Each structure stands twice: as structure tokens, then as C-alpha cells.
């Protein structure tokens, strides 16, 4: 019980001292465009799902406002370069029971004002598992992998951007 109270007090103190979980960006950069990522895989719609997840993550975790490319101070763009489904487990009768979905992206963030590439990564990947025996489906794992990948792109990009 005392631990919960201590954690609560710590959260209040951090909030009152101006601490923020958001990433910092260079002065003068207020808006960012998130271009539709290109899909280099044979899986349809994954580019829309990832781009939307990335926009939500940028809005939630950074002080930047999402803007159209022509109005933005910076642009993040890239490609979905991998989407793989791996068999993890099967029954003794060779029936699949568990799979892992792994999604891989390549991205870059460009400062429109200077033309400089301020962050890039050519192979960031995240995965999620699903178990058929528990009634889980590939769509659930795909959504989880995409959400986690969007979080990681924001962390990776904004940690590099000084």
C-alpha cells in the first residue's frame, strides 16, 4: 500500500515540476507531415495501418502538430520493407498452433527548412505472436506489431533528432 502511495506522490511531483514524457524537437519545428509509407510487401493495407498508427503516435508523444506536406516544417516518410509470418509451434500432428508476425520499416525524417535528413533507420522491426488454440487471429498480432513499431519509430527518430 505504501508503495502505491509513493508512486502516486512521485507522479504528482513529476507533473508539478514540468516533467513531460514527450520528446523535444529543435526550435522552430512545430509541424510534421507523416507521408503514406510505401508498401514493398505482398500484404495489402499494411501501409495504411502503419501510417495511421504512426500519426497517432507522433500526435500522442511529440509536441508537433500533424500537417500536410506543403505546410509542414518536417516530413517523415518511408517504406514497409518486410512482413513475415513465422510458424512458432505446431501439434504432433503438424497442425500450426502459434505464429509470429514481424513487420519491418525503413524511414527518414527530413527538416524541410534546411533540407537535412535528421533521422533515419533502414531496418526497424517489431513482432507479435498469436495462438490459434486461444482463438487469436493474425489480424490481432498484425495490429499489435504495427502499434509497437510505430512507437519504436517515434522513439528512434526523436531520440536521434537533436
List the SSEs and their pairings.
Elements lengths: L1 H15 L14 E4 L3 E2 L6 H16 L3 E2 L7 E17 L5 E16 L5 E15 L6 H23 L2
Parallel strand pairs: 1-3, 1-4, 2-4
Antiparallel strand pairs: 4-5, 5-6
Overview of this protein structure:
- The chain is of the alpha/beta class and 162 residues long.
- The protein has one domain (24-160): 2-Layer Sandwich (Double Stranded RNA Binding Domain), CATH 3.30.160.150.
- It has helices at residues 2-16, 46-61, 138-160; strands spanning 31-34, 38-39, 65-66, 74-90, 96-111, 117-131.
- Strands 1, 2, 3, 4, 5 and 6 form a 6-stranded mixed sheet that branches.
- Helix 2 (46-61) crosses helix 3 (138-160).
- The chain starts with a helix and ends with a helix.
- The relative contact order is 0.18.
Amino acid at each position: 500500500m505504501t508503495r502505491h502511495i509513493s508512486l502516486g506522490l512521485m507522479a504528482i511531483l513529476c507533473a508539478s515540476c514540468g516533467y513531460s514524457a514527450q520528446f523535444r524537437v529543435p526550435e522552430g519545428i512545430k509541424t510534421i507531415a507523416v507521408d503514406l509509407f510505401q508498401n514493398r510487401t505482398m500484404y495489402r493495407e499494411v501501409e495504411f495501418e502503419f501510417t495511421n498508427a504512426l500519426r497517432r503516435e507522433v500526435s500522442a508523444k511529440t509536441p508537433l502538430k500533424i500537417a500536410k506536406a506543403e505546410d509542414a516544417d518536417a516530413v517523415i516518410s518511408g517504406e514497409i520493407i518486410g512482413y513475415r509470418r513465422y510458424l512458432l509451434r505446431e501439434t504432433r500432428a503438424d497442425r500450426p498452433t502459434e505464429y509470429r508476425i514481424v513487420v519491418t520499416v525503413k524511414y527518414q525524417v527530413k527538416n524541410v527548412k534546411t533540407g537535412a535528413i535528421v533521422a533515419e533507420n533502414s531496418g526497424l522491426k517489431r513482432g507479435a505472436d498469436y495462438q490459434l488454440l486461444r482463438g487469436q487471429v493474425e489480424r490481432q498480432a498484425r495490429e499489435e506489431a504495427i502499434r509497437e513499431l510505430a512507437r519504436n519509430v517515434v522513439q528512434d527518430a526523436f531520440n536521434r533528432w537533436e
